[in-house]
Amino acid sequence: MTIAYPRERVEDVLLDAPLPPSVRIFPTRHRFTPKGVGPSDSRFAGRADPYSVLYAAPDFATAFVEVVIRDRFAKRVGDRSVHLAELRNLSFTVIRSGSAVLRWLDLRDDGCLRLGAPTDAVRARHHAAGRALARSIHARHPDIDGILFPGRLTGFNVYAVFDRALGRVEADTAAPLATHPDLPDALRRYDIWIDHPKT
User: Fold this and answer.
1) How many CA atoms within 13 Å lie on the side-chain side of 112?
2) pTM assigned to the model
3) H or E segment at 22?
4) What is the pLDDT of residue 40?
């Protein structure tokens, strides 16, 4: 059952602000459409939903671990490597809205509590609660452009942009993920190394 969140509670957690320069990581096969989206399963959308969502984070390390690392090292104390081939299949872009102000459902800090939404919507590994929340917001509050939430793995800001707002967002030319200048620092921070193929 989808919950209809009352407008007065929604208003209490709205934030009107530009999308700051934020990193999006995606498969290199889509490098010529760096802000393109399509049906896929994610925290705030499922393949069967009538909308899609683009995710980006101002902090490179957050974008990297949310997209590439996720939970692969949970309960592992040995091998913390990422294959070079995996990185070569990924690209990044920087997206922003410039001077355009977007309207965000701000679920950071006590946002879920104030809205009356389950904290699983932003914190759980399973995405059912997040998808149910986003479906309700997207359908009943058409002025909302996306969701601002704390990344599950780092706690830093992540922006989920509904596809209906992408016309007010611009993207840089895509580049190989392995060339991002902040990648070495992210690898060191999380004690990850790149597994190069043996020659």
Assistant:
1) 16
2) 0.94
3) strand 22-27
4) 92
